[in-house]
């Protein structure tokens, strides 16, 4: 059985006094403590009325408590759904309504927002971190509350994770995964990325992403240490000075870390691996990583919330020999390159097609959206990624394009249609196209190209930016708004976004 209860029980026996988790304040939690605390929280949730098979949501900044809640909900038989704290209240409410949680975890700064949501009011338990709030139970109170795990099913195939991602339509989709899927992904990705049990892995990405659990689990399944911090150059620098040996970040993290100068007085020679996620970074950035961390391997991977997330991996000498590729499949992963219009037709090496993935860690589907699941996941388990790739004769994959038009800004996924739909609500906007353009720090930034309505000549780009900012998360808000008289068109009259990307891709370079 591959369950988190068994993983942590055995971890306590095998690695008891070793440090499992560290935070920015220096707080340390051993494997013995992690097992004990997650047992206690799980029992406290059940004692407060939660029942196996129900759901929970989490809304807070990065902290060790995230992983304690993650594992505790698994032990209690609850599904766990982390929410994006950058979303606006209306965006959050739609996700909360869909999950219909029995348990709500939140940092004190988010309790007022959540209190306005009927689905939160209907929850059996509301647990607050970092303060007190009327109608909410304190974290420590639940941790020490009455309850028992006796009789709770320990099912490796039961739903545990509901992690939200956005689709090409902008509609949020909850990706479902079992405990078995997560643990297998952790083991296989640790093998592929050569993450060892002696590792001190520093994680600074938002925990509401799939990586919030999948990345720390790579060391927690084998007795290593995960250092959990929120990204600030000084904080990450302190973690590196404290002995971190493996760093996970998107290109923006590395740019900001290097530009800050915090590494100038720090011994960086203990860093043995630097993973760059989010998208294919520039050669200049990889050179800068090698300059700042001379003993570290360069590491890169490919995946998605739906696929595991670890699907392809590249590290060390393979990275140097096959620079520009996405790497080889992670152990336990099957991959195919097929004709996008005819998925049954597999393509030979060298031809560009859609990447299909099958493994034990591929999602089981989209939460309460069987229609969307059927569109991407076949009955025999093959996931259509929507990404276009080619495979060379040695089996290494190269990304050719994103069939979904997704923009990656600072490691965050932005889907143009969602932003276009909001801008279209403004009376000054007659027509709009949103594209991603290169950015030296954030990989890509969002550009909105707007054709004004006839009587709106005085409307400014900043006015439109603020209009979006009030309705969508900041990372989705266009960094630039450019007004046009008309758009290039396809033969069917649609806006030709490919031409726009070529035309505007260098106009706004910093």
From TrEMBL:
<keyword id="KW-0436">Ligase</keyword>
<dbReference type="Pfam" id="PF13193">
    <property type="entry name" value="AMP-binding_C"/>
</dbReference>
<dbReference type="InterPro" id="IPR045851">
    <property type="entry name" value="AMP-bd_C_sf"/>
</dbReference>
<dbReference type="InterPro" id="IPR042099">
    <property type="entry name" value="ANL_N_sf"/>
</dbReference>
<comment type="similarity">
    <text>Belongs to the ATP-dependent AMP-binding enzyme family.</text>
</comment>
<feature type="domain" description="AMP-binding enzyme C-terminal">
    <location>
        <begin position="418"/>
        <end position="494"/>
    </location>
</feature>
<dbReference type="GO" id="GO:0031956">
    <property type="term" value="F:medium-chain fatty acid-CoA ligase activity"/>
</dbReference>
<protein>
    <submittedName>
        <fullName>AMP-binding protein</fullName>
    </submittedName>
</protein>
<dbReference type="InterPro" id="IPR025110">
    <property type="entry name" value="AMP-bd_C"/>
</dbReference>
<dbReference type="InterPro" id="IPR020845">
    <property type="entry name" value="AMP-binding_CS"/>
</dbReference>
<dbReference type="InterPro" id="IPR000873">
    <property type="entry name" value="AMP-dep_synth/lig_dom"/>
</dbReference>
<feature type="domain" description="AMP-dependent synthetase/ligase">
    <location>
        <begin position="10"/>
        <end position="367"/>
    </location>
</feature>
<dbReference type="GO" id="GO:0006631">
    <property type="term" value="P:fatty acid metabolic process"/>
</dbReference>
<dbReference type="Pfam" id="PF00501">
    <property type="entry name" value="AMP-binding"/>
</dbReference>
């Amino acid at each position: 059985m591959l369950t988190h209860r068994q993983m942590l029980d055995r971890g306590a026996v095998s690695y008891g006094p070793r440090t499992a988790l560290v935070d920015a304040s220096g707080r340390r939690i051993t494997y013995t403590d992690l097992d004990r605390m997650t047992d206690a929280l799980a029992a406290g949730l059940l004692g407060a009325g939660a029942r196996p098979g129900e759901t929970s949501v989490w809304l807070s900044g990065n902290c060790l408590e995230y992983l304690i809640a993650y594992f505790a909900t698994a032990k209690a038989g609850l599904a766990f759904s982390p929410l994006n704290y950058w979303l606006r209240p209306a965006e959050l409410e739609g996700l909360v309504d869909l999950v219909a949680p029995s348990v709500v975890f939140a940092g004190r700064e988010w309790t007022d927002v959540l209190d306005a949501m009927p689905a939160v009011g209907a929850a059996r338990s509301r647990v607050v971190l970092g303060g007190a709030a009327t109608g909410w139970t304190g974290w420590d109170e639940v941790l020490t509350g009455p309850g028992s795990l006796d009789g709770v099913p320990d099912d490796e195939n039961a739903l545990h994770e509901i992690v939200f991602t956005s689709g090409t339509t902008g509609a949020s989709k909850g990706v479902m995964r079992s405990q078995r899927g997560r643990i297998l992904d952790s083991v296989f990705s640790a093998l592929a990325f050569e993450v060892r049990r002696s590792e001190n892995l520093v994680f600074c990405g938002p925990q509401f992403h799939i990586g919030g659990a999948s990345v720390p689990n790579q060391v927690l399944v084998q007795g290593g240490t995960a250092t959990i911090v929120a990204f600030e150059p000084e904080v990450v620098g302190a973690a590196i000075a404290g002995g971190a040996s493996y760093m996970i970040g998107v290109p923006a993290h590395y740019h900001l870390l290097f530009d800050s100068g915090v590494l100038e007085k720090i011994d960086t020679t203990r860093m043995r691996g630097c993973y760059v996620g989010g998208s294919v970074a520039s050669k200049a950035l990889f050179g800068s990583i090698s300059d700042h961390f001379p003993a570290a391997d360069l590491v890169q991977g490919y995946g998605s919330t739906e696929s595991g997330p670890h699907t392809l991996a590249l590290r060390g000498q393979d990275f140097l020999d096959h620079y520009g590729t996405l790497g080889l499949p992670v152990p336990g992963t099957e991959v195919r390159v097929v004709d996008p219009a005819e998925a049954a037709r597999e393509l030979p090496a060298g031809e560009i097609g859609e990447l299909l993935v099958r493994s034990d860690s591929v999602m089981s589907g989209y939460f309460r959206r069987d229609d969307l699941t059927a569109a991407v996941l076949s009955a025999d388990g093959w996931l259509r990624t929507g990404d276009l790739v080619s495979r060379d004769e040695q089996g290494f994959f190269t990304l050719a394009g994103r069939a979904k038009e997704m923009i990656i800004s600072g490691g965050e996924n932005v889907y143009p249609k969602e932003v276009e739909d909001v801008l279209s609500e403004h009376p000054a906007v007659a027509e709009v196209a949103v594209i991603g353009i290169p950015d030296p720090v954030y990989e890509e930034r969002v550009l909105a190209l707007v054709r004004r309505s006839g009587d709106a000549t005085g409307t400014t780009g900043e006015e439109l930016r603020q209009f979006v900012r009030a309705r969508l998360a900041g990372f989705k808000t266009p960094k630039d708004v450019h007004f046009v008289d008309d758009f290039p068109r396809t033969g069917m009259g649609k806006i030709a976004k490919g031409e726009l990307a070529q035309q505007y891709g260098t106009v706004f370079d910093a």
